[in-house]
Structures are given as C-alpha cells and as structure tokens.
Amino acid sequence: MTENIELYPAAETVFKDPALGVYFRPRLTFETTNCEQIYRVHLLGTDGLICANVFKYLEHNFFGFKYDDGLYDFLGDLRSVSTIYL
Q: Per its UniProt entry, which superkingdom is the organism in (predicted)?
C-alpha cells in the first residue's frame, strides 16, 4: 500500500496552476481505484487565507477544487489575498 503514497509532492504535480503552492501546501498524494478508474488524491494543508471580500470558495469553503486528470483546479478567487499580501 505504501508504494502508492508520495510524501510532499511538488505543486506542479498537484495543481493546474502551480502558483497555488504558495497558499495550499501539498502534504501527500496517493493513488486509488474506483470503478476501474485510477485517481490521484492529494491531501493539502494551508496556513490560512484571509480574504478581504467574500468569495464562494474562500477559506471556510476550502473544498473549492475541481479534479481534472489528476490535478486540482482551484475554483476560488485569490485576488483579494494577493492585493493584501503581495
């Protein structure tokens, strides 16, 4: 079972937009099979997002990712975070 686990994967192997690695920290990736389809599941950590405006997928709606061919595509809007911190 452990051969299907990758600890601390690179952001490029987790996100459609690797820049999301600044906000969401990939902790591990594992492969699983469901209905004969192989899926790569990524477990993430975060230091927390403080959004100035309310968006559909801000921190307390952290589930805002779409699975796309083994990569996660963030559905949120980080514009308010970048204007505060960058």
A: Bacteria
